[in-house]
Amino acid sequence: MDEAKRMEEGINSPHNGGGDSIEHDNNDTMKGESVHQPKEPDGKHKTKRVATLDAFRGLTIVLMILVDDAGEAYPRIDHSPWNGCTLADFVMPFFLFIVGVAIALALKRIPKVKVAVKKIILRTLKLLFWGLLLQGGYSHAPDDLSYGIDMKFIRWCGILQRIALVYCVVALIETFTIKLRPTTLSPGYLSIFTSYRWQWFGGFVAFVIYMVTTFSLYVPDWSFVDYNSSELKRYTVICGMRGHLGPACNAVGYVDRQIWRVNHLYSQPVWNRLKACTFSSPAEGHLRKDAPNWCRAPFEPEGLLSTISAILSGTIGIHYGHVLIHFKGHSERLKQWLSMGFVLFILGIILHFTDAIPINKQLYSISYVCFTAGAAGIVFSIFYILIDVWGLRTPFLFLEWIGMNAMLVFVMAAQGLFAAFVNGWYYKDPNNSLVHWIQNHVFINVWHSERLGTLLYVIFAEITFWGVVAGILHKLQIYWKL
Matching PANTHER family, A to Z (predicted)? Predict the structure, then answer.
């Protein structure tokens, strides 16, 4: 069997029926992908599903639930108000990283490019739809039982929208360059990079667009109306500068205000937890009397310019997928993955602590891309060693199960739709529902601590619960695919 044939058969997923089906990155590949593992003692190649992909995806979902629902009680794990990186700030780049890895495996063989493009566009539109529905303001889950959104204030951007756009760009580049994929690599460490030069060229173009726009675009003064206050008042932010990386006058916010308009941006940005805005920093609190006007302003953390930068996270992820395809030995894969992961991680730290480009999730700065992509590569490698090399799969099964049904757990748990459904059945008062009763009486009152009770509720009543549900659905072969 020649190398090309082995490569095609070795990466066929046991769930997709062959090379012509295109599995969706974040949710449609949630049942795992298979690649050639190193040779067995008898000299035969063993085709085996790489469980690390599902476990890593499950870890990302678990982190999202933890920081979203326990972040208010523990502000240190919530998103950094501006510069810096907390546990919550790893969620988005981890998502995009595993999106890239899955794309490399899913788009392994494309008989008809037009069919592939059609499927990519369709799945992109589905993700955009769900993103608008869940994060555009229509859904008020889990505590507010009302629904609907004034189209004057609909939020056009969000987590799924960013994943959709990054997926679309990275997958299309992979599709249109698939015939350039080599069957064998030339000698040398850099051969994996040169063989996929067009994917890296796409990432480089995104890098140039982001950097040039960020540091050269002139940001004028701007104004907004604070709709979060009972007294509607217009505020003005004085800028008149370029290359600014602070909250008020950066190019990322300016681009979004010009394209989406200020009313369609996220109305409660995390920067209002800065010391300049509240004495409760890093927790939320009342605004200081001397707080700058921008503390009240909306800002889009998943905006257009920062999404262009986020394409780099997907590009780095797809590189890890290419390594998985071409390198058959565990040590060869880990050498490639860990070296790149540590280089990116250290580069991000250097850029941040030299004040060249601070690590900033809200701006999706280049140092943030390097730091978080490096961390993703290192964590992915550690998971690979533990799960696929050492065979310690049992301790990570609940992460695998969640990763296999990532979309379901994201919608029901991370976006609170299941909790909202349960809250809809209450007695006399909306706060007297099963969810609130469990949270208060089983966790908070027992431990006599709202912070600890909230954390335990998230760990057991949300993460563990959905891990069990995902496991049952896996046994029944039930998966939610877009």
Answer: HEPARAN-ALPHA-GLUCOSAMINIDE N-ACETYLTRANSFERASE CATALYTIC DOMAIN-CONTAINING PROTEIN, LD22376P
Burial of 133 (0-12, 13-18, 19+ CB in 10 A): middle
Instruction: Looking at the structure, tell me whether residues 99 and 189 fall in a common domain.
Output: yes
Please give the helix or strand (H or E) that residue 177 lies within, else none.
none
Torsion of CA 248, 253, 255, 259, to 10 degrees: -120
Q: What pTM did the predictor assign?
A: 0.89
DSSP letter at 287 equals B
* Nearest Cα residue to 320 out of 238, 175, 199: 199
Quick one: tokens of 199? 């994917």
- Within this chain, do residues 355 and 463 fall inside the same structural domain, yes or no? no
- Tokens describing residue 325: 């395809």
Token pair belonging to 239? 């800028």
Alpha-carbon distances of 86 from 244, 315, 365, 415, rounded to whole Å: 23, 23, 15, 21
Predicted local distance difference test score (pLDDT) of residue 36: 47
Angle at the Cα of 19 from the Cα atoms of 311 and 197, rounded to 5 degrees: 35
pLDDT digits (tens, 9 = 90+) for 61-75: 999 999 999 998 999
Tell me which residue range forms the domain holding 454. Answer: 53-71+393-471
Q: How far apart are CA 119 and CA 92, in angstroms?
A: 24
- Are 309 and 206 contacting, i.e. CB atoms less than 8 angstroms apart? yes
Residue 291 and residue 417 in one domain: no
Identity of the amino acid at 282: P
Identify whether the C-beta of residue 367 lies closer than 8 Å to the C-beta of residue 374: no
Q: Please tell me whether residues 265 and 359 are part of one structural domain.
A: yes
How is residue 328 written in tokens? 């058959």
Q: What is the pLDDT of residues 316-356, one digit of tens each?
A: 999 999 999 988 899 999 999 999 999 999 999 999 999 99
Report d(CA 445, CA 273) in Å as an integer.
Answer: 28
Residue 172 φ then ψ, to 5°: -65, -40
Domain boundary among 391, 426, 455: 391
DSSP state of 381: H
**Bridge partner residues of 242 (DSSP):** 218
231 shares a domain with 169: yes
- How far CA 274 is from CA of 105, 280, 447, in Å, comes to 42, 9, 31
